Amino acid sequence: MKTLALLVLASAVAQAADWPHWRGIHRTGISDETIATSFAGDGPKQLWTASVGIGFSSFSVAEGRVFTLGWADDKDSVFCFDAKTGKQLWTHSYAAELGDKYYDGGPGTTPTVDGAQVFTLSKWGDLFCFEAATGKIVWQKNVATELKVEAPTWGFSGSPIVRGTQLLLNIGTRGCALDKATGKVLWSSDGDTETGYTSPLIAKIGAQEILFSANTKAYLALDPATGKQLWDIPWATRYGVNAADPVVQGKNLFISTGYGKGCAMYELNAGESKLLWQHRDLRTQMNPALLIDGHLYGIDGDENSKTQLKCLDAATGVTKWAEPVAKMGSVTAAKNALIILSGVGELSLAKISPTSYEVLATAQILSGRCWTLPVLSNGTLYARNAAGDVVALEVKP
């Protein structure tokens, strides 16, 4: 019995995981954790709540701390909470405009935790490196001002990522790289083409490491060491909103954007891209699709249009099923379930299946506009709305 108990404990520990940056440890939006797929009463147990101000920043969770951003009283604020209790451990605020053109506004990037440090970027280019434990500023700068790059229409929205000693940002036509220890610019690009809204993504195609990014006219493949452009895929979207990150697996690259543009799958070989299929059946306006066992799961439609959760065969692009979702929301996944947050705050857990949509549990967890991707980490689901109401829910199996 003792051995069995130890095995069960070891299994639970192995399943639990931090979520230190945008789209999680694998940068896929998919967690290795298993969650409870039924709720007692009105929904999952509420562990704590908080208010962080207006914005669409998601959460990063590492070493027992939760980080996010919000705007209030003409200031952006970086928040650090105790992951278990919700106690505010530290906060840092700085002057910032709301930037509410046609929507609520506020910061849209997610903090990036790297070891003992956390990096944050505002929609206007304010870049900080903090001590994660204390909030002490290690270094700071306005990288947009330094590089003479104007913020795009809805502000910088790509979250920072770390590659070795580099801090990579989607600022400029092709992005830029800084020394993460000092903030020194290692390489940069001009602002001739407006910055896109995706986060940088590092992936390997064969033996070659590639940095994927987007501006308002194309999706790009770059050499992360130098910033040299390897190739691009022209992708003109209404209003220039290339916001959903590309999805890379093996030699395949999936691109999807909203405003009626649609999606496409490419095969990448020797620096060239070959179109495999393209259509308008999946139009992810902001949050990227998930690729699970050869199938794509994503929210089709824009804020002002009919929206559906859809499953597509990644090899052929054929739609396997479609399920209505209230307003534009987001989808992430645990090992055993899709986690769908509708645009009006309804949480749904569904079976991961390409044959049909099977809902396992639902609960109303928030009100108001909910575009932000929820985060699963160490048995807790963190979610927020545009107004900055945060809820932490227990979803351990």
DSSP strand (E) fraction?
A: 35-45%
Name given to the CATH architecture: 7 Propeller
- How would you describe the shape? globular
CATH class: Mainly Beta
Overall average residue pLDDT:
94
| Quantity of strands, as a count | 32
**Which fold name corresponds to the CATH topology?**
Methylamine Dehydrogenase, Chain H
Briefly note the structural class of the backbone. mainly beta
Strand line-up in the sheet with most strands: 1-32-31-30
Question: What would you note in describing this structure?
Answer:
This protein is mostly beta strands. It has a single domain (18-394), classed as 7 Propeller (Methylamine Dehydrogenase, Chain H). The chain is globular. The chain is built from 2 helices and 32 strands. It has helices spanning 2-15, 143-147, and strands at 45-51, 60-62, 65-72, 75-82, 88-95, 112-114, 117-121, 126-131, 137-142, 161-163, 166-169, 176-179, 185-187, 201-205, 208-214, 218-222, 229-234, 247-249, 252-257, 262-269, 272-279, 290-292, 295-300, 308-313, 319-324, 330-333, 338-341, 346-350, 359-364, 375-377, 380-384, 389-394. It has a 4-stranded antiparallel sheet, with no helix packed on it. It has a 4-stranded antiparallel sheet with strand order 2-3-4-5, with no helix packed on it. Helix content is 5%, strand content 43%. The two termini are 21 Å apart. Strand 31 and strand 32 form a beta hairpin.
